[in-house]
Amino acid sequence: MEQKRCYLAVDGGNSKTEYRLLDASGAVIAARRGGGSNHETMPEGFDDAAAVIINEAEDLLAQCGYSVENVSDAVLGLAGADYNEQVVGLEKALQAHGLAKCFVCNDGYLGVYAGMENGVGICYSAGSGVTCAGINEAGVRVQFGGIGVLSGDIGGGFDIAQFVYCSVYEHLFFGKPYTTLKDAFYTLFDIKTPDDFRSAAGRIMNLDAAKLLVGLFFTAMETGDELTLHYAARAASHAADCIIAASDALGLKTSIQVALSGSIMTAVAPPAYRRMIEYELYRRKGKSFVLRVNDLPPVEGAVRWVRQRNGLSH
Questions:
Q1: Across 45-169, where does the E strand assignment appear?
Q2: 99 vs 57, 66, 96, 261, CA distance in Å?
Q3: Which is the most buried residue in 40, 45, 178, 240, by most CB within 10 A?
């Protein structure tokens, strides 16, 4: 009797990882959300990330009567898989933990498949960090951003949170221009004095606080805070840099489909910020790009991809 087959689709990020289990026909039969799986945040790097992923996957598989040996193929889009050495390291670690066949790529590529059924186009993603990934009709892939300060990334959640705190800090202690972020920060965290503000640094070094600061940022932007608008314009310009670089590298010409993904672009940023990105693209390249917010989570891109790789029609 043929051993029963199944497939895995995984979207691994800094704060959470989404898992989908597909049966032999390609139908999704189970889902699970676990913690972050970025190897760059773990003491043992690739091995720790692989262990986290396989442990969560084994629990999901067991619920449906499968084991990791039944996984015929897996597509994993993982934060931190930014260049080939990292991809190879993650694949080897996953195989060492029992996942015999798998395909690892940066999680940004999942947004392309989630946004376009044919898997052709560009995805600009802004969540904890930012990255831009693209795929052309020949299957050639390129990625820009995602390395952080080394690649000049701007517009991710942690970067925005740092900007908010630093802007208020420089106003209070260095005499830099006033920003409405100061009053908003004081109110949100019940700050009374500059010394209280300084002490607040220890309270905001976590994901929940970063989300609150991102909310403050976009509120200030919408109400016309000059400092915040300047930062938003720089972030939009960087997004356009990445999108144009991806389209040029892939040889994409007209009506280039661009999916906007990540928690900032899909759930937090107001339409005005997306229009800033559109304006930067139009100013430089005319009507070459068609932008839209992804209405499917990136893990659905992994589902489509594993189906395509294995000829599953479901």
A1: 71-78, 103-106, 121-126, 130-135, 141-145
A2: 10, 13, 7, 28
A3: 240
Residue-level pLDDT, tens digit, the chain, 314 residues: 356 899 999 999 888 999 999 999 999 999 999 999 999 999 999 999 999 999 999 999 999 999 999 999 999 999 999 989 999 999 999 999 999 999 999 999 999 999 998 899 999 999 888 999 999 999 999 999 888 888 889 999 989 999 999 999 999 999 999 999 999 999 999 999 999 999 999 888 777 888 899 999 999 999 999 999 999 999 999 999 999 999 999 999 889 999 999 889 999 999 999 999 999 999 999 999 999 999 999 999 999 999 999 999 77
Residue with the two structure tokens 């889902």: 31
**Tell me, what amino acid is at 191?**
I
Nearest 5°: phi and psi at 274?
Answer: -65, -35
Token couple for 60 = 């999901």
Check: CB of residue 84 under 8 Å from CB of residue 222: no
Residue owning tokens 């959470």: 16
* C-alpha span between 51 and 93 (Å, rounded): 8
d(CA 115, CA 121): 8
| Strand ranges in the chain using DSSP code E only, listed in sequence order | 6-12, 16-22, 28-35, 71-78, 103-106, 121-126, 130-135, 141-145, 256-261, 289-293
Residue from 6, 10, 93 nearest 49 by CA: 93
End-to-end CA distance of the chain: 23
User: Parallel, antiparallel, or unpaired for β 256-261 and 289-293?
Assistant: parallel
User: What domains lie within the chain, and their CATH numbers?
Assistant: 1-106 (3.30.420.40), 108-295 (3.30.420.40)
**Predicted TM-score (pTM) of this structure:** 0.90
* Neighbouring C-beta atoms of residue 145, cutoff 10 Å: 28
